[in-house]
Amino acid sequence: MFAELASFALVAGLLTITPGLDTALVLRTAVAVGPRGAMATALGINTGALCWGVAASVGATAVLAASDAAYLVLRIAGAGYLLWLGLGMLWRSRPGRGPDGAGAPAPAEPPPEADPMPEADPAAGGDSLVRLWWRGTATNLLNPKFGVFYMAMLPQFIPDGAPQLLTGIVLTLVHDLEGLVWFGLLVLGVRRLRERLAHPAVRRAMDAITGTALVLVGVDVALSERPV
């Protein structure tokens, strides 16, 4: 079991640090909202991964490979959500838009005495931590390709005779722990560069990059075929 766990940790670790949609979403949230919001998004991403891990462990994800209707429903829902989220970010990234999406441009530089990259205040109309957590969760949960990946990977690392569900959950939690460490390092790096990243142009660029990534993944999901 230890050998399987170590092997899975290595594979999952390499997957975690590979730049992708999850990384872009956490970085964008760290720039636009702040460290707490970014970690809430990271926890949501890990929640989605845990749900897929549990589903794969009990064999529920096999339905995606066996049922045209189930895969089609999830594919349409996932593609629609990713496209909606990505297009919204692209809309906010237009020149002349403030960091909150308002039409009036934000000041080029914050006052010297102000925090150059303050945390967004949910009470002031920003994204709440719960909403950011759900955004991360839904991004993974509504992506059928993520589910198919877990279905294909987890069984290979569950030893014969081991409890299927318990072992699958342990492996998924290892992946989640690696993700939290990686995302924490990314957020810390953003925190150290907060003065440069606080400029509205940088925030719009992050929205444009992340929005484009979401749209491309959404289109890919929409056009994907059920795995054989």
UniProtKB/TrEMBL annotation:
InterPro entries: LeuE-type (IPR001123)
Keywords (A to Z) from UniProt: Cell membrane, Membrane, Transmembrane, Transmembrane helix
Transmembrane helix among keywords: yes
Presence of keyword Cell membrane: yes
Domain of life assignment: Bacteria
PANTHER family, per database record: ARGININE EXPORTER PROTEIN ARGO, ARGININE EXPORTER PROTEIN ARGO-RELATED
Subcellular location: Cell membrane
Pfam families associated with the record: LysE
Record-given protein name: LysE family translocator
Principal cellular location given in the protein's record: membrane
Ranges for region Disordered: 98-122
Residue ranges of the TM segments: 38-65, 72-91, 165-188
Topology relative to the membrane: Multi-pass membrane protein
